[in-house]
Design a protein that fits this description.
Number of helices: 5
Distance between the termini: 42 Å
Number of strands: 5
Radius of gyration: 14 Å
CATH architecture: 3-Layer(aba) Sandwich
Number of domains: 1
Helix content: 25-40%
Largest sheet: 5 strands, mixed
């Protein structure tokens, strides 16, 4: 498996293959984003797309964004999906490439919006939780 950054100019070429994986992951949110919002953000260069390839097939998709804080800059993972819905451990090995990308872009922090099950697998520091209530 190999991870690749997708330049904004190539997003539309791959959208038909990555959109189902993005939509699959977004089913777990509360309506904050739908795939068309992600596409718009990718085309406007506000969001960043990474894909995981194995055997000439896209089997993982990660969408992130840069978040500037007053004293730090973070790379936040908004959504992450695998074709099977499992095998995140394999992708974790490739996070070094994404971390290098974040560092090269001035980030000192990685963040992720994630469900509890995946949060356990990340083996990252649990800095804080975000809870929500529908209004």
């Amino acid at each position: 498996m190999e991870a690749y950054f997708v330049p904004p100019t190539d997003v539309m070429k791959l959208w038909g293959k990555v959109e189902p994986l993005i939509s699959k992951a977004l089913k777990h949110n509360y309506g904050e984003l739908v795939s068309s919002d992600v596409l718009k953000g990718l085309l406007q260069k506000k969001l960043i797309l990474w894909i995981g390839f194995e055997d000439d097939d896209i089997n993982s998709v990660l969408v992130g964004e840069f978040v500037p804080y007053p004293r730090k800059k973070a790379f936040r993972i908004l959504t992450w999906s695998t074709k099977s819905g499992y095998h995140y451990e394999e992708w974790m090995k490739l996070f070094y490439k994404i971390e290098d990308f974040a560092r090269a872009n001035g980030c000192t922090l990685m963040e992720a919006w994630t469900r509890k099950g995946l949060a356990k697998k990340l083996n990252w520091n649990h800095s804080y939780s975000i809870v929500s209530k529908q209004l």
